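Subject: Sanity check before I submit

Could someone independently write out the structure tokens for this chain? I want to compare against mine line by line before I put it in a report. The sequence has 203 residues.
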Amino acid sequence: MDSALMWSAIRASGLVAYGLLWLQVCTGLSIRRPLAGKPAYHADWHGWLGLWALGFLAVHITLVLLDTFQPFTLRQAFVPGAATYRGFWVALGTIGLYLLLLVLLTTFLRRLFKPTVWRALHQASFFAWLAALAHGLGTGFDGNTVWAQSFYGITAVVVLVLWIRHFKRKRPSKRPAVLPDSESVSTVSPGLPNGQCNTAQSR
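---
Independent answer below. Compare away.
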């Protein structure tokens, strides 16, 4: 394959993998307070987007290993810090891969974990996306272009807004207390079936 075409395929697969991972984080942050639809709808998409992101990430890594212009060995691709080409940023991409694998694996084995432990492990998806963001900006040639910086910047702002919205607690509504009617006071009699009410007339 032509080197220019190979680099285009590498960048394209990386951008698609990042976009899918970003959407996975966004849907995860929207499950509790969905922007549209039911929570189950967001939960289903959340799971599938993670698998699709892993699939495109596998394509991205395979193309990197097949490239002859900037060759990578298996060790450089899968051991953080082993790469000689932009080692720090490549290491972040590798760490993001392992974090995504951790999230997907623990999700399939969710029954083996306590809910609190699983939720803590599932937070790794956010750090996987963060590592992918830094990897894309620091490793790819497109990281210095206006369109790429705008793309990454917009995705970061969206995640920040959803993150704040997700963890912001709803304030209890301040409604005025309903005062009983001056003419009658209804009280529930526990001795009556179906919670029937007695009405005591005020005298």
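---
OP: Matches mine. For the report I'm noting this point. Residues 39-66 form the longest helix (28 residues).
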